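We store sequence with structure; for instance:
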Amino acid sequence: MARGKIVACVTVMALMCGTVSGATVSWTKGQSPPASWTLSPANPTSSSVISFSGPLDEPVYGNSCVAESNLGGTPQLTINTLTRTVSLWFQGPAPTICTLIWMPVCGLEGTFGPLSDGKWTFRCQTLDIEIEFTVGGGGSGGQVVYVDRSATGPSPNGSTWYRAYRNVQDALAAAAAGDEIRIADGTYEPDQGTGQTAGDREASFVVPDGVILRGSYAGYGASNPDARDPAAHPTVLSGDLNSDDLWGILNRDDNSYHVVTLEGSATLDGLTIADGQADGPYPNHYGGGILIQAGEPAVANCTIRGNTGVYGGGVAAFGASPYLANCQLSGNRALLYGGALYNHDSTTTLASCLLTGNSAGSSSVGGGSAICNMGGGAAHVTVSNCTLADNVGPWPNEIVLFNFSYSGSPSEAVRINNSILYNDGGASLIWSDDPATVVASYSIIQGGWAGTGNLNVDPRFISRGLWSIEGEWIDLDSDYHLQATSQGLNHGNNSLILTDHADVDGDGNTSENHPLDLAGADRVQSSKVDSGAYEGSAAEPHPEYVWEELRTFEITFDVPTGITYPVTLNGSYSHQVETNFRAELKLEVAAASAAGGTWTAWFDPEPGHVGPGITTVTWRVRGENVDIGELTPGATDVTVAEVTLYVRPAAP
């Protein structure tokens, strides 16, 4: 086990080493006070050192001692990277006796930064100053806006988790193209927020062109508020405006027509969209979950469930080119066509998606319990590495994929690659007015379909969902991975894997082949890709892997003189990890001096699985209530905490 030393900072000057390189503050001398408080440059970047200056509560003080006596002490700066706040304050005790020397001061000035990109606040409670500013983006988008119903900060403005907007609508109103809205776990309704009317069924989360909506964050109060985990921190955008739905299918006549409306190149990532009810007059009978009427939006890592529409219970697309990747569409219902997706004169792509428990139509009309593709020559649907299973319609209209081209039928209205369409065996699940326009290959399709590499066999899922007596889809214990005996394993064609247009792994590379299956595992795990949304069979039981110590870091600190009260220490560090196997990492931290304190450590960002090879990981450490009065004043290189990095093989 290796050991290393790294240095922490005290909050008197800055709360984080690395990103914040320094902070200074001094009195402005003379008798001509600044006209107002200003920050420079006006549009700082993440490499800018920011200058500030401004007047005091009185035009002029005779000298700095008199100013300190009146204001409460020596001026200090605190930079808090967690709340994105730069605080100017006065450290007591304030002097009670000052020498009568005329050396006038009329303001304060100083510098701080560089700071990380985002919205920040410069404040001084004593002087009643609060200035919001943005680092990066030049005021033209590219900022992070925070939403958290549990946040407690005053005057919510979305600049930090502490001062997060309480409602998604307020963040959308403030966002510009290029902005990213991060939403903490919780349930959010579209009729809540400034300017919204409670109970308005036409209220919808309208995501503008170029805006990114990301969910599944831990949010305010968590040790790492930016940690993302859809299972641990689900973010639900719900159309159940009165929170009174029963079994997911009853008492819905007050629900939102469209939970989300996407425009242009908007993006949804890591969200659950639920409980929409598109049963109103045109256009409010399309797209209970998501309505897309133009543009090329992306929907990644989302769950779209429990929505209803006349056309398109889950999603309805018109004249658009949406891309859905690594999404689950389940328990959605269309009164006529397209339980999960209604595609009208649009070019829609589904990659590594799971469509289960969706329904459409009646005994006399309708169909496409999973997908309905309808229109002229502009209507195209691509289904790649998807699983469409247990989607039903009333007998005899049990069609899972319905394709109808009323004019100008394209040569490939529907393209199905490396996918699975299966219910319980028996009749074909595909209907098309022109079967030649549905092109399928390397797929398992119940009832069979012409094409290279297609099979008409039971795909042998691990476990399947079921329908309740009330007609609600229940899939809590379902697992649509393939059994080890499935013919769908290694059955696909690697050349048909789509590119990662929606960037499901968040690495910024949208030209690579789709890298992950629906469970987040590698998309190709052997020589050939599998059919369906999941790669590989369910994991076999294996012995519990043991965490091994990889390295311990000593957090060291130079003890200042004249400070005897508890402080907060923070640091941000990077380290290279080299393994010859695929691994996962964790951190543990403990106090290592008489100063004690409450210590936490976390990765930022979470590295996920690493290796084989060299991976650079970044992590943060924070010590609160560290009583440096217990340490020797002026001592250097004092170890105040130890952080241990652990590694173990990643589960297969």
